[in-house]
Each structure stands twice: as C-alpha cells, then as structure tokens.
Amino acid sequence: MHEDVFAAIIANDEAEALLRVEELNDTGAFADDLRGHPVAAAEAAATTAAEATTAAAAVTTATAAAEAATAAAVTTAATATESVTAAETAAILETAAEAAAATKIIAAEAITLVAATSAAIPTAPSIETHALFVFPVRPQIKSKAKRRTKNAGLPAQKLAPWNRP
Asked: Which stretches of sequence are listed as region Disordered (predicted)?
C-alpha cells in the first residue's frame, strides 16, 4: 500500500514540474509572433530599420538637391531678366516651388515604424500565473479543536494515589 502512495506523490511532483515548464513555454510564446524565433525577428527589425535609415538619407539628399535646383532656377531667372518676360519668370518660380513642395511631401512620408533595438520596447513588469503555491510546511493552527467525548468541558478527574507518577 505504501508503494502506491509513494508512486502517486512522485507522479504529482512530476505533473507540477511539467506544469511550470508549460507555463514558462506559454509566456515565451507571447514574446513574439514567430513562436520561438526572437533572433530572426530582431534581425528583420534591424534590417527594416537600416532600410528606413537609408531611405531617410536618400530623401534628405533629394531635398538638398531640390533646394539647390530651386536656388539655381531663381538665380538663373534673376540674371536672365532682360531676355525673359515677367510671365516666364513666374512660371519658372512656380515650377521650382512645386518641386520643393513635392520634395517636402516625400520627406514627410519617410518615417521609421520599427524600433531599432529591442531595448526601446518596454516589457511587462511581471508574469502572472494562476498556479497554486505549495508550501513545504503548513501554517500552525492557533485554535485547538475541542474534545468530542462525553467528558468534554468537564474538569479532569484526580488520579488515585497508586496511579500517580
């Protein structure tokens, strides 16, 4: 009979240990959508961030080139005032303004949507599980159970002299 009880205790301990491993596995699964591939996700995020940085640098270069072209167009229009009429100058300035506005719109659309590092993403402060705590020592019960006999609550009888220690 004792062997069966001992086997049941071991099986219960193994089940509790496996439950904890399963809870740990479940919490790790929620960490990312790739289910256990955080390195690949981090590399993909870094690649996306690098591409966004490259695109932002290209937009900055294009903006600088457009501003230089606008300045050159304005300078050309100012130096060629004798041969160009006022209407043509207005058309040149309008075209340069449209190019600058289009460049600003492109620059406004280039934003980074992915965090560059995983350290920038805040994590949950703790993981809440619903497992019961199992304490190795049970707490002491402060109230004693009352005796359930016929003499409960009555004073103890005195021992006969021959039964005294």
From this structure: 144-165
Is residue 165, in this structure, part of any structural domain at all?
no
Joined together, the tokens standing for residue 113 give 């949507």
The residue segments making up the domain with residue 45 are 2-160
Residue 23, judged by CB atoms within 10 A of its CB (0-12, 13-18, 19+), counts as middle
Reference 44, options 58, 33, 59; nearest CA is: 33
Quick one: tokens of 36? 């256990």
Q: Please compute, for residue 118, the number of CA atoms within 13 A of its CA located in the half-sphere on the CB side.
A: 10
The Cα-based distances of 40 to 36, 146, 157 in angstroms read 9, 66, 82
- Per-residue pLDDT band for 139 (boundaries 50, 70, 90) equals low
Q: Please check whether residue 95 lies inside any domain of the structure.
A: yes
Q: What is the largest CA-CA distance in the chain?
A: 144
Instruction: Say how many domains are in the chain.
Output: 1
